[in-house]
Amino acid sequence: MTLRSENSIISLCTYQPRLLLMGLRRSGKSSIRRVMPPNETLFLESTNRINKDEVNSFIDFQVWDFPGQIDFFDSAFDLDAIFGKVGALIFVIDSQDEYLEALTKLHITIIKALTVNPNINIEVFIHKADTLSDDYKIDTQRDIQQRAFDELSDSGLDNISVSFHLTSIFDYSIFEAFSKVIQKLIPQLPTLENLLNIFCSNSVIEKAYLFDISSKIYIATDSSPVDVQSYEICSDYIDVILDVSEIYGYERKNSLNNKNTTDETEISSIIRLSNGMALYFQELNRYLALVCLIRTENLEKHSLLEYNIQCFSKAIKQIMYQIAYTCS
What we know:
Layout: E1 18-23, H1 29-34, E2 51-55, E3 61-65, H2 79-83, E4 86-94, H3 100-116, E5 121-127, H4 134-154, E6 162-166, H5 173-183, H6 189-203, E7 207-212, E8 218-221, H7 228-248, H8 256-260, E9 268-272, E10 277-283, E11 288-295, H9 302-327
Helix pairs in contact: 3-4, 6-9
Pfam family, one: Gtr1_RagA
GO cellular component, one term: nucleus
Subunit structure: Component of the GSE complex.
């Protein structure tokens, strides 16, 4: 995720959902929080205090990184303050290490969190999975899931929803996992997905993603299955656009109106691929971009595509105004 200083945050809401990163020591929580280039996380020191960061996106939220060596369930800590306003609990398990102790900690954490906040989303990142073979990844995930659900069932928590994600900072799996976590915190997600479905249908688009530009997580996508390769190439395309815009682009004013509006100077780009497909990038505002996969022969309908994008942009603008009105 791209983290920004408190002074740079433009918040539409005074309430910001909170993501908790928990897990054992050296499980990779701090690396996930920063999502740095992998070579910058290799010798990252263990966290010895709670790190709190603000993330500016379609919805502003906080990321709290808890040190694994501290027992936060001790009576000296206020569990209501820790879990009370949390949108999602992300528990990180090191897939390269023995995970029985981590599963025990996960079980205790889930019970404590649900006692304070029954609506919290429970997410488990099976991390550092890049070194595992494909078969061993599946076996490891299956074993962790089975053991976790067995322990919850023994505690009478059979109906608890827990999502598991294989992640690594060396590929796009961490961005995809964070995308799915963030999507659960967006009440307008069904509306966004419906808008993307209508847009794809009327524009002959194969796949469309609504990206947060800075973090490269996708806020929403259409209902067609998510292909990892298409997501990766769209993410790489955003990197290219950002690199070029730093040279030839301009700095937007840091204002609330700029967050909510679109104008004719937003960046757009088309690149043709060698497989008969094309990538279409359309910046909606300084935070959001629409990235589409379209067949090259359908680019002949460019005027129709531009018109539909304008309609889509207006709809996104209305949704953001609704969020601002609801939070005011």
